[in-house]
Design the sequence.
């Protein structure tokens, strides 16, 4: 019951924050609200017995990634210039987006409600997880079953870093001057 | 000299064809380099030899038993496809012999005449090439042993006619007239081709002998197929022989050189239709209805053309209409079943009409190309020989005994009366009156009265050279004597041709008792027709010699009728307005509207629509990222909804 | 059991909000943040399913999604910086040289 | 016959084209000579086909059969019979003529000759293919060089014309591709063998319903190529814009591919549908005959006139094919050759005066006979051949077609025969306006008569015109057996289908009867 | 709890390993030996790709699942690997002089291309949705960067941004779809999903259907099918031409590989649903692609739309399914690789620094100024249009056959009609080259041996495989998916 109550509260917070992300004019506020959303999601993860995910949600996502966002916003000094101020060139964009979003919600809601889940039940019940420990379990899986994707992920990050460096290198400006 | 190196002249029938062909090829290929004299010699020799050969063939044929006077020779299979077979083969029988004699004989004379007549022309060798080619085609036409081969000749003469009418191609009227001749002939050929096909489908063969042999068994008397075959054939004949309604090309054909008019458009080619009808007499006899049609068309044409002849002022045109009219007589004869009479008139007509044309050619030659009779007159003293021969021809055509035309025309009228009806006779008789009138009108206007020539012309008027006069004289002789081959009661031509009629040995048709009319009727008819002719002549004399101002008065009185007749009943104009112009107009509509606007427009419209769609779809590519995302989301939502709800 | 359904619906709502955000915002970074929001909603779904199915695979998947998100963030922000350097704007509506 | 003679003939031009690739483009004379030598050689080695052709067998001759793409059952299967023999020869003959006719092409002669030679390979390939896939490949292959010939060396509106040509033809043929694939799988289902081999597929009995659609698909491909009314509008444009040789090839060979396709594929593969479609095709053909002739009559451009006359002539061919009797079929095949010769020659002739005067408008001419007597003679002969004057080639084919048609349907024959009148109208009228009358246009006063090269172009065609007109037996006798075989084949298959239909009908009737009887009993009950 | 790390089957991933390691080495080499190595980096990477291709060839004929069924080596993946490697190799050849000319001659360029290739190989060999997803991301991230590699060029930036935003957006849908499949089946492994769906009613389960639809969106974006195609023209136009060439073949093929594997192996039981959706999408894709291509003026953009249209044809192969379908897809993708890269090679050869000369009108009169190049371009255009005897025709023929075999005759007819429409714009290029007067002076071509080699390879592929496709067809038939 407590779980339910917590879910409702956190869920509402999440939704409100998410809406704020979308509708805040200032990008920096959007970023803050996004962080807030992520944190509330982390709470929900805990409720779902995914403590490790909850932890990295806060640390990596809300912490690292979003800091990067905020940093870029600051760097480009975007908080002052309101890019949304001008007239929207696409007249039908907003209403159609809202309508489509609404339909999407309804569809997903209906689908979720109508689906009878009969997927194969795994071995990791909350009880067994809490016995071994969530983090340990994740670690174990990462090094056994998911070792290959894990390695790939490293390459992915490597590629991303290279890419980011290539694109953001200062040299560009010099090139332009020359 | 009946045998030539051991073989009968009949076997040499192919050479009759070969020489003109050789003449054509030699003159055609080398003529440009040869002198005019040589060209003329080659042309004439080729025909001359042909004539001689034909004569010997005739002799050889005479030697045979009358019932078996048929000789066939096959050279090679021309077209053979499945059951259809057309053989290149020749057939000699009395009918074709008569025809080749006329063709080569008259043809030779005209060739000789042409040497003088065409001497100053640049296209001399071309002329002789065509003329030889014509002779070849005409001989092929009459000698062919099947319908399709005959059709080659049929079209071949048409081609030559086209070429010769348009001989002076720089004259627009000449080239147009040639084209008109060919196209109108094609209309006739349309019928001919269909007839051949129908014959093939009916008899499974197109060979003359086989078809005529099988016809009486195959076809019911008066059956639909028989009528269709004969009518379709007759369409061909109408085209070639210039009968109503396809006669209009012949007067225009006078744009060609005069000897051509004499040979092709008077003596030989135009009578091919008559020949064809006579050739197919077996079929015609099986289709009485068709015969009636033939007779009526012939009779009406005879009269109709004669009326037009009354008011024409061009000397050659008058002759042309008279040709149309005379051929009408021939068809009239055929139509009443008197095929031999038709051929008889064909032969005599060949003589006197060739004579008349050549005579007129002599006049034109002498006058330096003038053809309008109103600008002639009084030529008697300038061109006596021409005048004499012309007079003979005129008398012959008018039907004054004992000239050739009298016998044949009289017989036509007699047959029309005895075997046909009073109506047909009346048509013929009235036409005869008119013929006598307009022919003498021509004679009087040209040779009598006071000269209407311009000073310049008058100074240069001269009698024609010998090469022109000799053929005239020969033809005049023939016009006088030619009639006697068909002398009533002792008709040589009649007995000679009799086997051909009714399929020869199938004497079920009344070929033999052609002349079972009472002598009294015969003589009274003779009297009447002579009377008619004399009446016509007198009338002409009255109007054009005695009281030259009478015609003008009459014209004033009957202005409407005169205008109509003068303008040839406006037939050309009517054809132009009802057939030619609408066709061209329709074609323009088809091209400019159906083709360009509708079909092509449709095609281009599709292309345009495709492109437009591209242009429109392109606009969805707005360049805005958000918009692209919208289309992704939209597509996604639609897919999800459809996959869940619709499918 | 019913509760999981509501988790999923919550994830769906977040996903839609993110999607709508992508469509209506013009600031490239905010758009990117909305995409992050969508990714988070997917994560929520994965975790929910994982819990529901008693399987850890979903959580592992989330782990990888986060990795990817980090990588994308690095590249994405680099791209935005690059374009800002050249055009001095992050308004995606101004970035439409190429169209049609 | 171990020597793959058909392959040699077909691919020799391609070899020549490759050779030309390595020749310096500046050396025009050399290029022309090489192309000419290749074409002559090709024609000469194709002649033995005529003489060695066995008259008494309906089998395909000079067969070569090599597996090509064995995974799909596609083979390089070529051979000729009496139907394709002459089209094959005609192709090599006309290409030779065309290369000679292109002697005065100045710009980009190398590319021109290469295109010409590749075109020849494509065309020859079409006529010998006995494999549906191979056929389609050749069929499409020859579009490319033709497209370039029109597009690069053509007249002012060449781009429009060439794209129209390409897309029109392509649009028709892609449906055929679909149909070919469908047949392929049908054959697989029936026999368990994946094959595109035409001779094997001939044995396939295609269900009636499918025949309808498949026939239609083939019909579009071929009808556009023929071109039948109302798919003809690409033709005048293509002809007008194409260079002389292009027009000659287009009229002489390309159009025949459509009619050939009908004979070789549509008829034996879909006999039932072919019979079903007779009214449609016959009326379209007749419409084409009359319409083409009428529209030709009022054309102002010589080439357009000849192009429309092609529509008319090809109408005869189509009509002859679809009467299913030997005269019609043989007439049609003969008429294909005739049309190739006479219309090809007409285009050559028009090309000759175009080369001299740079105009094709009839109104610009008149009285040319005065200046060009030899030209006039050839022009006249070819014109007459096109009109179908007896004694020349056109007549034989036309008449056989008409006889064949007459045997089956008198009405069609009567209507088609009007084409005989109309052809005389438009051709002679044109001839009069161009060659006769007074030579008024001062431009025309400088015209020169034909030269030796042009003689060499026209003389062989003229000889053939006379030969076929006077003694067509060597040609007809060579196609006799094949045509007979084809017709019996079609007829038998058609009868089988009809029988099936009858049985079905009877069964249906029986079933109805049973129904009625049961109903009846029920009522009684 | 003990952790038993499973044995690493390195053999099965050897091509990936080689590519990855050498990519890193190149980066290192670029940093340390910039002066000495720089120009030969392309050369080296080309050799590496060729080497990898040879290694990949040795894997033919086996089916090995490795890394706890995360990765699979079967003929299908090997064949696709070869396609990727061929395209990568050719693109590298095209790039060498191109990036020098554009002033973006950095080692990272090759590293990223190789990483992208590696990602594609993961996609083709992924036996788990996770592997496929990660492969997709590696590929995409590399391409985002590569698209924006001309950093000083606004268009390149724009391409990069558009590609990135939309790519990430679409990825979310893909992930959501994966999540739904995971939620209903309890696994992300392709085989297990298949066996689960085979044993449970799947069509009535709305979440599976929705998940499938979401996957279609995700993959549809990558293969550029309508209506998820809109990034394609813009990105193709803005990206460096060599990268455009790369994007048009490699990643597209990779997306098709994953698409095919997921839909034909994992989701055959939902075919009733997705085949209809794909049917409509294929028709839309072909039609829109071709129609809009007609009105394009920029050749890169035109080729972008043409690639959309070709995606439509390739979708037909998936719809057709079965051995025939997947083998035809394999053949088609390889065919497309040759001809499309060839076309882009010509575009690159004609481009200049700062002036791409990518407007179709710029090609006026090329035919007689540079005849060989023009003939080459012509051949590629005709091949793309599907005219025999070039490989494009065989490819199309194969796909249409597959469609017809499986009863999709209407689809095949729409396909052929579309290929007629496509003829129009391909022809326009040849028209411009041969039938229009030149509008400008052509600068002398700077044909490096690399580019010439690339042209020769593509030309060979287009012609030789068009005339003698038997071996390749045989190979493709042996490389169909195992069910």
Sequence:
């Amino acid at each position: 019951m407590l779980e339910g109550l917590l879910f409702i509260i956190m869920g509402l917070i999440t939704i409100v924050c998410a809406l704020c992300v979308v509708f805040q004019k200032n990008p920096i506020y959007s970023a803050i609200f996004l962080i807030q959303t992520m944190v509330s999601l982390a709470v929900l993860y805990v409720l779902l017995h995914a403590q490790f995910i909850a932890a990295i949600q806060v640390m990596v996502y809300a912490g690292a990634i979003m800091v990067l966002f905020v940093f870029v916003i600051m760097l480009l000094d975007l908080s002052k210039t309101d890019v949304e101020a001008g007239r929207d060139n696409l007249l039908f964009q907003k209403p159609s987006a809202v309508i489509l979003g609404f339909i999407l919600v309804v569809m997903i809601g209906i689908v979720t409600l109508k689906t009878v889940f009969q997927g194969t039940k795994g071995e990791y019940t909350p009880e067994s997880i809490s016995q071994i420990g969530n983090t340990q379990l994740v670690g174990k899986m990462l090094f056994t079953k998911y070792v290959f994707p894990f390695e790939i992920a490293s390459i992915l990050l490597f590629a991303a870093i290279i890419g980011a460096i290539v694109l953001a290198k200062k040299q560009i400006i010099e090139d332009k001057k020359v | 000299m009946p045998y030539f190196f051991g073989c009968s002249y009949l076997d040499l029938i192919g050479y009759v064809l070969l020489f003109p062909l050789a003449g054509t090829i030699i003159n055609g290929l080398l003529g440009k380099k040869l002198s005019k004299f040589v060209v003329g010699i080659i042309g004439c020799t080729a025909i001359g030899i042909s004539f001689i050969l034909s004569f010997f063939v005739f002799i050889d044929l005479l030697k045979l038993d009358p019932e078996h006077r048929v000789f066939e020779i096959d050279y090679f299979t021309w077209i053979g496809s499945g059951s259809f077979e057309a053989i290149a083969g020749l057939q000699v029988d009395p009918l074709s012999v008569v025809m080749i004699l006329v063709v080569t004989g008259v043809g030779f004379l005209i060739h000789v005449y042409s040497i003088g007549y065409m001497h100053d022309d640049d296209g001399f060798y071309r002329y002789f090439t065509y003329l030889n080619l014509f002779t070849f085609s005409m001989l092929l036409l009459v000698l062919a042993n099947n319908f399709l081969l005959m059709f080659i000749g049929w079209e071949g003469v048409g081609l030559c006619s086209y070429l010769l009418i348009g001989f002076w191609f720089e004259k627009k009227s000449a080239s147009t007239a040639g084209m008109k001749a060919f196209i109108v002939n094609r209309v006739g050929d349309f019928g001919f081709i269909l007839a051949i096909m129908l014959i093939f489908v009916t008899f499974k063969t197109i060979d003359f002998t086989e078809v005529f042999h099988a016809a009486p068994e195959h076809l019911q008397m008066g059956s639909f197929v028989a009528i269709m075959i004969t009518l379709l054939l007759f369409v061909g004949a109408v085209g070639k022989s210039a009968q109503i309604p396809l006669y209009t090309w012949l007067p225009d054909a006078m744009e060609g050189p005069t000897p051509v008019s004499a040979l092709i458009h008077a003596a030989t080619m135009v009578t091919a239709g008559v020949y064809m009808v006579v050739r197919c007499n077996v079929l015609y006899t099986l289709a009485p209805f068709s015969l009636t049609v033939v007779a009526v068309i012939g009779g009406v044409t005879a009269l109709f053309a004669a009326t037009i002849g009354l008011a024409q002022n061009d000397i050659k045109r008058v002759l042309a209409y008279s040709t149309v009219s005379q051929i009408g007589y021939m068809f009239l004869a055929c139509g009443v079943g008197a095929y031999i009479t038709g051929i008889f008139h064909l032969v005599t007509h060949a003589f006197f009409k060739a004579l008349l044309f050549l005579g007129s050619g002599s006049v034109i030659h002498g006058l330096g190309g003038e053809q309008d009779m109103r600008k002639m007159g009084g030529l008697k003293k300038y061109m006596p020989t021409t005048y004499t021969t012309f007079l003979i021809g005129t008398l012959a055509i008018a039907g004054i005994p004992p000239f050739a035309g009298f016998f044949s025309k009289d017989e036509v009228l007699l047959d029309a009366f005895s075997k046909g009806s009073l109506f047909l006779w009346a048509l013929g008789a009235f036409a005869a009156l008119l013929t006598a009138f307009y022919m003498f009108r021509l004679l009087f206007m040209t040779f009598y009265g006071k000269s209407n020539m311009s000073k310049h012309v008058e100074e240069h008027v001269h009698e024609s050279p010998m090469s022109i006069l000799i053929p005239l004289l020969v033809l005049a002789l023939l016009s006088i004597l030619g009639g006697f081959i068909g002398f009533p009661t002792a008709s040589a031509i009649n007995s000679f041709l009799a086997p051909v009629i009714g399929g020869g040995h199938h004497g079920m048709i009344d070929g033999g008792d052609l002349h079972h009319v009472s002598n009294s009727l015969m003589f009274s008819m003779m009297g009447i027709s002579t009377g008619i002719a004399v009446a016509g002549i007198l009338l002409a004399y009255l109007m054009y010699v005695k009281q030259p101002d009478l015609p003008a008065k009459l014209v004033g009185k009957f202005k409407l009728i005169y205008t109509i007749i003068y303008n040839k009943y406006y037939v050309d104009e009517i054809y132009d307005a009802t057939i030619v112009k609408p066709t061209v107009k329709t074609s323009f509509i088809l091209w400019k509207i159906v083709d360009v606007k509708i079909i092509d427009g449709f095609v281009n419209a599709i292309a345009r629509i495709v492109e437009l769609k591209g242009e429109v779809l392109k606009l969805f590519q707005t360049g805005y990222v958000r918009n692209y995302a919208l289309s992704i989301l939209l597509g996604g939502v639609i897919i999800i909804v459809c996959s869940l709800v619709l499918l | 059991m019913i509760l999981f359904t509501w988790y999923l619906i919550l994830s769906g709502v977040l996903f839609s909000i993110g999607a709508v955000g992508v469509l209506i915002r013009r600031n490239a970074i905010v758009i990117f943040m909305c995409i992050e929001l969508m990714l988070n909603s997917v994560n929520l779904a994965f975790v929910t399913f994982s819990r529901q199915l008693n399987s850890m695979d979903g959580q592992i998947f989330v782990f990888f999604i986060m990795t990817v998100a980090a990588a994308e963030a690095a590249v994405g922000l680099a791209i935005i910086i690059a374009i800002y350097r050249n055009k001095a704007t992050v308004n995606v509506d101004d970035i439409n040289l190429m169209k049609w | 016959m171990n020597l793959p003679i058909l392959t040699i003939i077909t691919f020799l031009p391609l070899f020549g084209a490759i050779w030309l690739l390595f020749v310096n483009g500046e050396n025009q004379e050399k290029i022309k000579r090489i192309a000419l030598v290749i074409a002559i050689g090709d024609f000469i080695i194709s002649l033995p086909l005529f003489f060695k052709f066995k008259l008494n067998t309906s089998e395909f001759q000079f067969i070569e059969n090599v597996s090509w793409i064995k995974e799909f059952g596609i083979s390089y299967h070529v051979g000729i019979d009496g139907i394709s023999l002459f089209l094959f020869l005609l192709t090599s003959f006309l290409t030779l003529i065309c290369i000679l006719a292109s002697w005065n092409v100045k710009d980009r002669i190398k590319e021109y000759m290469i295109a010409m030679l590749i075109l020849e390979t494509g065309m020859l390939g079409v006529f010998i293919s006995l494999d549906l896939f191979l056929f389609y490949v050749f069929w499409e292959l020859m579009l490319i060089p033709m497209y370039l010939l029109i597009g690069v060396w053509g007249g002012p509106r060449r781009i429009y014309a060439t794209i129209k040509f390409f897309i029109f033809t392509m649009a028709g043929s892609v449906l055929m591709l679909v149909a070919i694939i469908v047949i392929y799988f049908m054959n697989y289902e029936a026999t368990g063998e994946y094959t595109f081999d035409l001779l094997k597929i001939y044995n396939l009995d295609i269900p009636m319903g499918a025949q309808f659609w498949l026939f239609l698909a083939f019909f579009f491909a071929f009808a556009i190529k023929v071109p039948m009314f109302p798919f003809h509008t690409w033709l005048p444009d293509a002809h007008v814009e194409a260079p002389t040789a292009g027009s000659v090839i287009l009229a002489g060979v390309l159009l025949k591919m459509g009619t050939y396709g009908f004979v070789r594929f549509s008829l034996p593969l879909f006999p039932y549908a072919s019979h079903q479609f007779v009214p449609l095709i016959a009326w379209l053909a007749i419409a084409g005959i009359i319409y083409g002739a009428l529209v030709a009559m009022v054309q102002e451009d010589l080439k357009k006139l000849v192009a429309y006359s092609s529509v008319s002539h090809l109408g005869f061919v189509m009509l002859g094919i679809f009467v299913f009797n030997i005269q019609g079929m043989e007439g049609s095949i003969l008429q294909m050759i005739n049309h190739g010769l006479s219309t090809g020659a007409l285009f050559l002739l028009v090309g000759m005066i175009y080369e001299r005067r740079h105009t094709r408008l009839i109104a610009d001419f008149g009285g040319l006979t005065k200046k060009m007597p030899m030209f006039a003679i050839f022009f006249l002969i070819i014109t007459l051949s096109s009109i179908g004057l007896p004694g020349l080639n056109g007549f034989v084919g036309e008449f056989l077609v008409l006889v064949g048609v007459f045997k089956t349907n008198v009405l069609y024959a009567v209507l088609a025969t009007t084409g005989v009148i109309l052809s005389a109208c438009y051709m002679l009228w044109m001839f009069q306006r161009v060659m006769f009358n007074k030579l008024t246009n001062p431009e025309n006063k400088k015209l020169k008569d034909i030269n030796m090269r042009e003689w060499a172009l026209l003389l062989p065609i003229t000889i053939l015109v006379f030969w076929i007109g006077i003694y067509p037996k060597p040609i007809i006798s060579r196609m006799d057996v094949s045509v007979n075989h084809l017709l019996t084949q079609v007829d038998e298959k058609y009868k089988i289908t009809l029988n099936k239909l009858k049985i079905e009908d009877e069964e249906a009737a029986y079933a109805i009867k049973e129904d009625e009887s049961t109903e009846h009993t029920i009522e009684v009950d | 709890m003990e952790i038993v790390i499973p044995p690493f089957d390195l053999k099965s991933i050897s091509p990936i390993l080689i590519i990855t390691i050498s990519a890193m080495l190149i980066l290192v080499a670029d940093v340390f030996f910039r002066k000495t190595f720089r120009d030969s980096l392309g050369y080296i990477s080309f050799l590496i790709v060729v080497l990898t291709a040879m290694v990949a060839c040795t894997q033919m004929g086996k089916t090995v699942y490795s890394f706890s069924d995360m990765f699979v080596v079967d003929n299908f993946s090997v064949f696709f690997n070869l396609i990727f490697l061929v395209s990568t190799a050719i693109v590298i050849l095209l790039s060498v002089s191109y990036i020098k000319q554009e002033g973006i001659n950095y080692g990272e360029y090759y590293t990223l291309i190789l990483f992208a290739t590696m990602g594609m190989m993961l996609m083709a060999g992924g036996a788990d949705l996770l592997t496929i997803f990660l492969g997709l991301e590696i590929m995409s991230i590399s391409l985002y960067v590569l698209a924006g590699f001309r950093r000083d060029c606004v268009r390149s930036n724009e391409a990069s941004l558009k590609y990135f935003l939309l790519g990430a957006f679409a990825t979310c849908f893909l992930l959501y779809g994966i999540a739904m499949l995971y939620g209903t089946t309890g696994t992300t492994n392709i085989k297990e999903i298949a066996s689960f769906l085979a044993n449970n009613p799947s069509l009535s389960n709305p979440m599976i259907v929705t998940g499938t639809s979401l996957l279609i969106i995700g993959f549809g974006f990558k293969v550029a099918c309508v209506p998820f195609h809109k990034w394609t023209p813009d990105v193709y136009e803005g990206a460096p031409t060599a990268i455009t060439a790369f994007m048009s073949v490699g990643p597209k093929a990779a997306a098709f590989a994953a698409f095919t594997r997921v839909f034909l192996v994992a989701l055959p039981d939902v075919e009733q649903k997705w085949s209809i959706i794909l049917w409509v999408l294929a028709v839309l894709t072909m039609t829109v692609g071709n129609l809009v291509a007609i009105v394009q003026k920029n050749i890169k953009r035109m080729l972008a739309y043409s690639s959309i249209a070709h995606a439509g044809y390739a979708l037909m192969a998936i719809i057709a399914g079965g051995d025939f379908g997947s083998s035809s897809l394999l053949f088609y993708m390889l065919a497309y690789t040759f001809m499309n890269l060839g076309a882009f090679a010509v575009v690159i050869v004609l481009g200049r620094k700062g002036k791409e000369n990518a407007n179709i009108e710029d090609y006026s009169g090329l035919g007689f100024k540079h005849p060989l190049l023009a003939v080459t371009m012509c051949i590629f255009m005709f091949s793309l249009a599907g005219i025999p005897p070039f490989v494009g025709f065989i490819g199309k023929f194969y796909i249409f056959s597959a469609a017809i075999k499986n009863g999709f005759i209407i689809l095949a007819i729409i396909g052929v009609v579309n290929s007629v429409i496509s003829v129009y714009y391909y022809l326009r290029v040849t028209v411009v080259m041969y039938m229009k007067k030149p509008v400008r002076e052509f600068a002398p071509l700077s044909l490096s041996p690399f580019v010439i080699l690339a042209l020769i390879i593509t030309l060979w592929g287009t012609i030789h495989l068009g005339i003698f496709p038997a071996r390749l067809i045989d190979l493709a038939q042996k490389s169909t998916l195992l069910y």
